[in-house]
Write a structure and sequence with these properties.
434 Repressor (Amino-terminal Domain), mainly alpha, 98 residues
């Protein structure tokens, strides 16, 4: 399993959630960016699946008036193998670092 691809899949799904909840508020990417102190390009990147920090997740949840877990919630049943791949990759990385 390609773990990099798996991670990108999860990030893309999170990005879709960000976009969905932004559009529910009828906000542009620029408006959301202004609300959380980021540029339109950064919002666009997140919606396309770039990685986000925990701080950004919290800012997004406050601005969009949703719980942080709502943003990161993905269809777990369909993605269980992908999640297991991420966990295996993380364990392998920690073992190399030890």
């Amino acid at each position: 399993m390609n773990n990099e691809k798996t991670e990108l899949d999860f990030l893309s799904l999170i990005g879709e959630n960000i976009r969905k909840y932004r559009l529910r508020k009828s906000w542009s990417q620029e408006k959301l960016g202004l609300e959380i102190g980021m540029t339109r390009a950064q919002i666009s990147g997140m919606e396309k699946g770039s990685n986000i920090t925990l701080t950004t997740l919290l800012k997004l949840s406050l601005a969009l008036e949703i719980k942080p877990e709502t943003i990161i919630k993905v269809k777990f049943i369909k993605r269980q193998n992908a999640l297991e791949g991420l966990i295996d990759n993380s364990k392998a990385y920690r073992q190399k670092s030890s």
